[in-house]
């Protein structure tokens, strides 16, 4: 598939309609592609308004960003033990975890899914209702969008070679009641599990989706809009910040920016091998 076909497929998979400018119309230099992008549903709407603040995906400057100041969090007991676990012990430790109050309301823990040596790792926020019921991350509406986005760049959570696979995990392994935001203590208790998952997968690239993934991995409370569009690092692994799929379901205009973020991730991986 050529790059422009891949772009097209990616936009379509993300529910974006592509509008090609008539030959006479000049294309704005800052536009993210040779097309203007409009949302597919419910009806085609005007092309994306002002040029996106982020530059075009193929020419985005790569900037390595040092993590900002750490939010203060209570240290977790058993840290060293978790940091030495292999997959089976880690799965068991998550399943049996009673380190915070979420264990009282959860139906299932949600460990994560995908190839344990996947080249890609996606980090989301926390299980929702469907994930809590099924014990698998991103199986609701947001998950469907995530799968479409991944499929558009040739990735899946199913079987396949590691380079086409993602391991999907969340910052929290248990559902916060009513899908409320994770609380600092819950994040602190769960964080060592995510850190160990990343250490075991050894991904070539990490996609941090949404503010809690970013807070956990980059220790930054800056808004996603300020962090996306450049390459960060988590323990030497390139990390791309992007919008959470649940946010994208409510903010269709930002799907085009999420697409730019996927392009940046692909480019980064290609460049770094
Ligand atoms: N949102 C997340 O961040 N993770 C899930 O698993 C589901 C929805």
Describe this structure in words.
The protein has a domain of 164 residues: 3-Layer(aba) Sandwich (Uracil-DNA Glycosylase, subunit E), CATH 3.40.470. The longest helix has 18 residues. Strands 3-5-4-6-8-7 form a six-stranded mixed sheet, sandwiched between helices. α1 runs antiparallel to α6. By secondary structure, the chain is an alpha/beta fold. β7 and β8 form a beta hairpin. The protein binds uracil. Uracil (URA) binds next to α6.
Percent range of helical residues: 25-40%
Structure summary, number of beta strands: 8
End-to-end C-alpha gap: 19 Å
The ligands bound in this entry are: uracil
**General shape:** globular
CATH superfamily of the domain at 110-273: Uracil-DNA glycosylase-like domain
> How much of the residues is beta strand, in percent?
5-15%
* Physical arrangement of strands within the biggest beta sheet: 3-5-4-6-8-7
Q: In the CATH hierarchy, what is the architecture of the domain at 110-273 at level 2?
A: 3-Layer(aba) Sandwich
CA gyration radius, whole angstroms: 19 Å
Low-confidence stretches: 18-67
Key attributes of the depicted protein:
273 residues, alpha/beta, Uracil-DNA Glycosylase, subunit E, six-stranded mixed beta sheet, two-stranded antiparallel sheet, 11 helices, 8 strands, 37% helix, binds uracil
Strand-helix topology:
Blueprint: H1 3-13, E1 16-20, E2 35-39, H2 79-83, H3 87-96, H4 102-105, E3 113-114, E4 120-124, H5 129-134, H6 141-152, E5 166-170, H7 184-201, E6 205-209, H8 211-218, H9 224-227, E7 231-234, E8 237-242, H10 245-250, H11 255-272
Parallel strand pairs: 4-5, 4-6, 6-8
Antiparallel strand pairs: 1-2, 3-5, 7-8
The chain binds uracil.
Residues 124-128, 131, 137-138, 142-143, 170, 246 line the site of uracil (URA).
